[in-house]
Amino acid sequence: RENFCSSITAEPAMIDVGRSCILVSIGGKNIMLDCGMHMGFNDDRRFPDFSYITQNGRLTEFLDCVIISHFHLDHCGALPYMSEMVGYDGPIYMTHPTKAICPILLEDFRKITVDKKGETNFFTSQMIKDCMKKVVPLNLHQTVQVDEELEIKAYYAGHVLGAAMVQIKVGSESVVYTGDYNMTPDRHLGAAWIDKCRPDLLISESTYATTIRDSKRCRERDFLKKVHETVERGGKVLIPVFALGRAQELCILLETFWERMNLKAPIYFSTGMTEKANHYYKLFITWTNQKIRKTFVQRNMFEFKHIKPFDRSYADNPGPMVVFATPGMLHAGQSLQIFKKWAGNEKNMVIMPGYCVQGTIGHKILNGQRKLELEGRSTVEKFFYLKSLYLEVKLQVEYMSFSAHADAKGIMQLIRMAEPRNMLLVHGEAVKMEFLKGKIEQEFNCYMPANGETTTVTTNPNVPVDISLNLLKREMSLGGTLPDPKKPRTMHGTLIMKENSLRLVSPEQAMKELGLSEHHLRFTCRVQLQDPHSDADTLHRIYMHLKSVLKGYTTQHLPDSMSVMVESIVVKVSSSTEDPNTKVLLLSWSYQDEDLGSFLSTLLKKGLPSVLC
Amino acid sequence: GGAKGNGPTLASAAGSLLETWPTSASSLSSDGYKDLYVYQLDHPTRVLEWTSGKTICVAGFGPDRNEILELHLPPKLFADENKGLCAERDFKVVHGGFSDGPVHRLRHIQGTRCVVTNNGRSSSLQVWDVGDDESDVFRRTSSIEGAAPLAGQAAGERGSQVAAGPSPQPCVLHGALLGHVQLSQLASGDTCYTLETDSSEPLSALQFVSPWVFLACCRNGNLFAVDTRSPSLPPPTPVPPPPEASTDPVHWGMHATAGADVAGCRVARLSSGAEVVVSDLRNPGGPARRALLEVPADGSAGDHLRVSWAPALEDCLAVSGFDGGVQVFSVSTWGPEAREQRALFQHRGHSVLPSERSAPVRTTAHAWHPDRPRTLLSAATDGSVHVWDWVHPGAAQD
């Protein structure tokens, strides 16, 4: 309230392609948006650099809250590091599904990094648990009061289960952060939605802003074609999946295709997948009851005709089959076991439906590696039994991307929904975004900071003021053009600030209300003139002179009071007692006519012209 | 049949994928395509112009402000050995710009990063710098004025045809009427050649076939092979009279095979009545190959009709604009009589896929890839753009 010209600062200091972590300062509050891990680095560069903040104090004091948009590691992967290793004890907000799924992904990732790659400077399982204790879950469209001034609200973002876009509000200023979102619905998630909340700033990811996406139809065709070709030649297809998300979509797709084409090869899903999926989809369903297209409502997701639960002995069965198995990056467990059995046969295929973290077998085969070193075999085994040191990868490797992000069209749609005053595009390469900036700028203001740059957005908060009817009427009677919403008109009045209200009234009313008396200010000034005429003649000469100079004014000649008057200015003539040719002019005027008064005094000091008509 | 427990919307959504194109065939493996990519632009384009082996320009033709985009084709299309490891199926907008009016024609000038556009309403050309690595924005650098329109010239015939001039000097051949054809230098806009004729015949195509010779095809089908070294206009090669007496007026378009040898150049002319005449430049008046294409030709084709030779496939022509499809024909079996000929391959995707528009979809442009034999791009009135690699019927699919 004290700040009538305020600003929002957004500091994507820790943002990079591959990681999200934005610091926003709004109305005196500091909020961290996402806390991602950079998946491409193996050293400390994978974590955001918090020293920017911590050099001035502790994170807990500085930050009012942390908000996590969804469970992908490039948005939440550094959260336990930040809260437990750097130190933060304040609230961490995220949606219910994110809270449920985040720790699983973090633990998986921790295992790969520490156990498989042998790294040391990393968070522990206990740290993940302690971090999650600080989480406050959010419901969609529910306003949460973080403190007296700061409120937040989550909106549906699509993209993955539990992903949210967040509105942050302090007083009359607001920022909306999108995280990753998607504007086209798919088989198990709806499209992002937000109301016309008109934030001062909309922060949107724009990695895919310069792409035009190939249709879902063609991606699915490619998937079905690959599976079909493999099965037709008697091969086996392994599809490593994370328990939720794409697995359900792909299962449904295959089921329908098998039915349509009357195919006989068996399809399996691995044990453990169903319980997890059902459990999380129950969360998902309560979460999606609001404002999302109902693509499906299921009790049991896995009542399929053609898809059956897997048993590990089936992997050795001859003939074609398709198996969905966890975990998704082939780094451990059942999917890896099956992979080892099937990798040596070129008739087989493995389809990777998503990104694989460095260090996993999934990542290696997607980079074209055809010989993998096998872990867990002792040197004794290797030496004495001459067991193969390597696994030859002869099967066909297919990488397919089904993930959903907003493209340029999607960004424009979101902007039209929310109607932000300013726009911030992050996550892309700044140099190549001029075209998109131009496209958006046709409709909106658009800022694009580089990595490490601070952006200050000046907001014009609305200050509501009541105006008295009398004042309005008075203004109208002054004439001039009619009021026009597009053309502001200057007017005069007195602003009274009482308690929390602001009112604009006429000066007289203000004084009356406040019990003040009006004072008038009059100036006086003496001018001496040499004029060899009588006082009356001098007066007349002054009158003529002023009349000719002040064309727009009404000059009055008042011989009875020996004065000339124009507006509130009075010029009184008298002669000096010593010398009748020395005239003394007494000028006086009120404050309103200050300008005219001083003009006249200067004018008269120059003397009267000798010839007057 | 159908999975139990699945809600009706989900299963039927999956089912509808399989019931419609392209998997109406009994097996996915032989649905006719090796590669297939389907995109949706915000606004339809009627230009598809290569700016390199991997990038193409599209542009809107709405009445006011339009976008021009240079798109990079999906990496997966080109990843021949490691196709499986490449998941990238999206177009990437590498450069973009804004045009104040519709873009009816767009030509890339070889050896430069420039394109030339015409709005279909006037004879002036806009010259654009597509942009380099530093910037992703098209910049309008200059305009080249064409000839003023004649008094009786129809509004729909005021737009200039545009052809890239022969290298090395970047120049552009343009004109709306035969008598207005000129060759202008790109940088200065100066005219370095004009065709000496008073003819007010409206043009439908211009194309250089060698450093000195260009072809001008008029809407009435008359074809001129002009040598820029000699001043006068040569006699035309008219189209043969139609096989049946027809009262409907037809207009003709043209495309010639590229290549350094003018003598070996073949020209295909396509009429709005779905007739094709293939002439040999060695013997332009001599026996041509003719065909009546089996395509819907109700006369409503307008000016979206396109014909083009496959650059890397012998004797193959693609035709589009009659309906929502692109048809590929082989001319090797055609003779001098205009007999009905069936397409070797039909791409139906634009009309079969569900569209938001209620009006029937029509293809607006197509383009063969310069060196991949069977890769084509096609665009339609609903804003869709397809990239497809078709399989010769009867051949084993890779």
What composes the largest sheet of chain A?
A: 7 strands, mixed
Beta-strand percentage of chain B? Answer: 35-45%
Q: How is the largest sheet of chain A built, in terms of strand order? A: 6-5-4-3-2-1-23
User: So how many helices of chain B?
Assistant: 3
Polypeptide structure, described:
The complex is a heterodimer of chains A (613) and B (398). In chain A, a hairpin with a 2-residue loop joins β29 (563-566) and β30 (569-575). Chain A contains 18 helices and 31 strands. With 613 residues, chain A is of the alpha/beta class. Chain B is mainly beta and 398 residues long. Chain B has helices spanning 8-19, 75-78, 349-352; strands spanning 33-40, 49-50, 55-59, 66-72, 91-99, 105-109, 114-118, 125-129, 139-144, 161-164, 171-175, 182-185, 191-194, 203-208, 213-218, 223-227, 252-256, 266-271, 275-280, 289-293, 306-309, 316-320, 326-330, 339-341, 345-347, 363-368, 375-380, 384-390. Chain B contains 3 helices and 28 strands. Helices cover 5% and strands 37% of the residues of chain B. The chains are: A alpha/beta (613), B mainly beta (398). β12 (211-212) of chain A pairs antiparallel with β5 (91-99) of chain B, so a sheet runs across the interface.
Helix and strand topology:
The complex is a heterodimer of chains A (613) and B (398).
Chain A: E1 7-11, E2 22-26, E3 29-33, H1 51-54, H2 59-62, E4 65-67, H3 73-76, H4 79-87, E5 92-95, H5 96-116, H6 125-133, E6 135-138, E7 144-145, E8 150-156, E9 164-170, E10 173-177, E11 201-205, E12 211-212, H7 216-232, E13 236-240, H8 246-261, E14 267-269, H9 273-288, E15 307-309, E16 321-325, H10 333-342, E17 349-352, H11 361-366, E18 371-373, H12 379-385, E19 390-392, E20 396-399, H13 408-418, E21 422-426, H14 434-441, E22 445-447, E23 455-458, E24 466-467, H15 469-477, E25 494-498, E26 501-505, H16 507-514, E27 522-530, H17 535-549, E28 555-558, E29 563-566, E30 569-575, E31 582-590, H18 594-605
Parallel strand pairs in A: 3-4, 4-5, 5-6, 10-11, 11-21, 13-16, 13-17, 14-15, 14-16, 17-20, 21-22, 24-26
Antiparallel strand pairs in A: 1-2, 1-23, 2-3, 7-8, 8-9, 9-10, 18-19, 25-26, 27-31, 28-29, 29-30, 30-31
Helix pairs in contact in A: 4-6, 5-6, 5-9
Chain B: H1 8-19, E1 33-40, E2 49-50, E3 55-59, E4 66-72, H2 75-78, E5 91-99, E6 105-109, E7 114-118, E8 125-129, E9 139-144, E10 161-164, E11 171-175, E12 182-185, E13 191-194, E14 203-208, E15 213-218, E16 223-227, E17 252-256, E18 266-271, E19 275-280, E20 289-293, E21 306-309, E22 316-320, E23 326-330, E24 339-341, E25 345-347, H3 349-352, E26 363-368, E27 375-380, E28 384-390
Parallel strand pairs in B: 20-24
Antiparallel strand pairs in B: 1-28, 2-3, 3-4, 4-5, 6-7, 7-8, 8-9, 10-11, 11-12, 12-13, 14-15, 15-16, 17-18, 18-19, 19-20, 21-22, 22-23, 23-25, 26-27, 27-28
